[in-house]
Write a structure and sequence with these properties.
Layout lengths: L10 E3 L2 E6 L3 E4 L4 E4 L6 H7 L8 H16 L3 E5 L8 H4 L2 H13 L1 E5 L14 E3 L2 E3 L2 E3 L10 E4 L4 E7 L2 E6 L1 E3 L3 E3 L10 E2 L3 H4 L6 E7 L2 E7 L17
Parallel strand pairs: 4-5, 5-6, 6-7, 9-10, 10-14, 11-15
Antiparallel strand pairs: 1-2, 2-3, 3-4, 8-9, 11-12, 13-14, 13-16, 16-17
Helix pairs in contact: 2-4
Length: 242
């Protein structure tokens, strides 16, 4: 039996064609760019330093998944939208094997690190480039959404999750949250939590109703979120489903 497709058909955002991937990532075919947010590398070692030992495999698993998606999509660039490292001292805890993998990924693709609120990027770019934000074809890529931004924007930071009751079972999955102007990516890291996509903290980033979105069986599934209580005639519309 063949595996279900890992990414959905293209959808339009800000006049461009993107694809959502089931494994918490976005692909932009025009630029062959794989876009992820919130890797939180070295989170387990951070907990260990606090006396809460966790298996030290989260960074390896996250980088395994990143390399697999880069190979599957044929990505020539990887853009990491902030909080790629769990804390500002993560660089001092990275073992040689992880550092080598990061350098290898930077050699295979153009690796861009967008600074986040957790990052310790002063520890080095491991062959990649560092920026506060990145603007391509009129779309701004940054870590955290900016309320006054008038351009189309893609960001991370909030770790949105879709929470559903399916046949009497509570199901929670990382998801995208977005409308026609803003798109918030799920956390890509293997050891990351999240908050409900409809939570007021996330809703405050949108001018009106928006959608929680994820990929299942090769389809992009969209679930409405009411948005914050605003009376704004300029509120952007939710993305159409496909």
């Amino acid at each position: 039996m063949s595996a279900a497709p890992s990414f959905a058909p293209p959808f339009a955002f800000a006049g461009q064609s993107f694809q959502m991937l089931a494994d918490r990532a976005l692909f932009w075919p025009r630029h062959a760019a794989l876009i992820v947010a919130d890797l939180h590398l070295e989170k387990a070692s951070w907990y260990a330093a606090l006396g809460q030992p966790l298996p030290p495999y989260d960074s390896h698993d996250t980088l395994d998944r990143l390399a697999r998606l880069a190979a599957e999509t044929g990505a020539r660039a990887i853009w990491c939208l902030g909080d790629s490292f769990h804390d500002r001292d993560a660089a001092s805890r990275i073992v040689p094997a992880i550092a080598q993998r990061l350098r290898g990924q930077a050699a295979a693709t153009k690796l861009l690190w967008i600074a986040g609120n957790h990052d310790g990027l002063t520890g080095g770019a491991w062959g990649g480039e560092i920026a506060d934000e990145h603007v391509v074809d009129g779309i701004v890529f940054r870590h955290q959404s900016v309320a006054c931004e008038t351009r189309a924007e893609i960001s991370g930071h909030f770790h949105p999750k879709l929470r559903l009751n399916v046949r009497g079972r509570h199901v929670s999955r990382p998801c995208f949250a977005g409308d026609e102007q803003r798109l918030i990516l799920p956390a890509f890291g293997s050891l990351t939590g999240g908050i409900a996509a409809a939570d007021p903290v996330i809703a405050a980033n949108f001018a009106g109703p928006y959608q929680a979105m994820l990929v299942a069986r090769g389809r992009r599934l969209c679930f409405p979120c009411p948005g914050a209580a605003r009376d704004d005639a300029t509120a952007s519309r939710a993305l159409p489903a496909n």
